[in-house]
Amino acid sequence: MHIDLLLSLIIFSHGVDFEFFENAKGIRFFYEDGTPLSFAEYKIYSPRNEIFSEGELDKLGRVLFLPCEPGKWKIEVDDGMGHGIIKEFEIKDIQNIIFLKTSYPLYLKILTGLGIIFGFTGIVFYIIGRKYAHT
Amino acid sequence: MKKIFLIFVISSFLFSHDFWIEISNPFPKENEEIKIYIKGGHKILESEIAPKEKILKEFKIIEPDGNEISLPFKKEKNYIYSEFKPSKKGTYLVYFLFEKGGEVFYLGKSYFYIGEKNEIKNLNYDFEIFLKNLDFKERMEFEKGNYEFMNEKGNGFFKEIYKPFKGWNCIIKRKGGKVCTLTFYFP
């Protein structure tokens, strides 16, 4: 019995080993209200546009990302319910990976949109006002 | 100021995609073929999204005698549908479940009946909209909570009293990141 167990252990571990590594970068995906995209599908494309990694985000909507060459990397995330995101990251130095988030939060997007609408309306009314002022 | 506030409220409402059941004829006769749809999007009459098959754990009918049938389905670009011929008198429960990471997080259900209504079934999920009977009235009472609704007149919120609109109605309950949608047809 004891020998059987020992034998199984040897067979299962044959040719497979593991090691820990550090300094991996993580990305977390979440909805606008902060809820994580738990178990959403993701695909990471290398600069040569080949799939480098794919799978599911963890329960908290996270994935580890450790690019092996410089260039433009892409990650696609799809929650299967119509929500998704495609992001590109420019990696310059794989020894010193720096992620910069360039997108703006929702409230800034809304304020920008409102600013454009009000600005455009103001210009239209200014032109109309000038026209009536002359007549 | 009120209008600006309204814009923000609508924006936050629109970011969630909901999924619900629609039935081609909610008052079928015996052996009449009906189509049962899983639709998704922001508003009714305009299905925008079909859920991915990977998350669809169950799409079933429970017949009046308790017999459960898994519905074979076809996927179109914006919805999923199945065809079914009800042959027994009584109340049918139609539902779908979405699952991720081994956990059910979305339940959509609807009921229809042939002839006499009989005792209705619930699935007993803690985030489910629990119905005691199928007596849809001018004022329907639900357990206290925060509910949303969609019908052909629009959408909004209510706490426990809902006034159904003639035709298609959808009630949405969100609890701890999980969602239940109940659709029914008010005659």
Describe this structure in words.
- The complex is a heterodimer of chains A (135) and B (187).
- Chain A is 30% helix and 26% strand.
- By secondary structure, chain A is α+β, with helices and mostly antiparallel strands.
- Chain A folds into 2 domains: 21-102, Immunoglobulins (Immunoglobulin-like), CATH 2.60.40; 104-135.
- A 4-stranded antiparallel β-sheet of chain A has the order 3-2-5-6, with no helix packed on it.
- The radius of gyration of chain A is 25 Å and the shape is elongated.
- Chain A starts with a helix and ends with a helix.
- With 187 residues, chain B is mostly beta strands.
- Chain B is globular and about 40 Å long.
- Chain B has one domain (18-186): Immunoglobulin-like, CATH 2.60.40.
- Chain B has an 8-stranded mixed β-sheet with strand order 4-3-7-8-14-13-10-11, with no helix packed on it. In chain B, strands 1-2-6-5 form a 4-stranded antiparallel β-sheet, with no helix packed on it. A two-stranded antiparallel ribbon of chain B has the order 9-12.
- Mean pLDDT of chain B is 87; it is low at 1-15.
- The longest helix of chain B has 13 residues, at 2-14.
- Helices cover 7% and strands 47% of the residues of chain B.
- The A-B interface holds A 31-33, 35, 38-41, 56, 59, 78, 80-83, 106, 110, 114 and B 4, 7-8, 11-12, 15-17, 19, 40-41, 48-49, 51-52, 54-55, 98, 100-101, 106, 177.
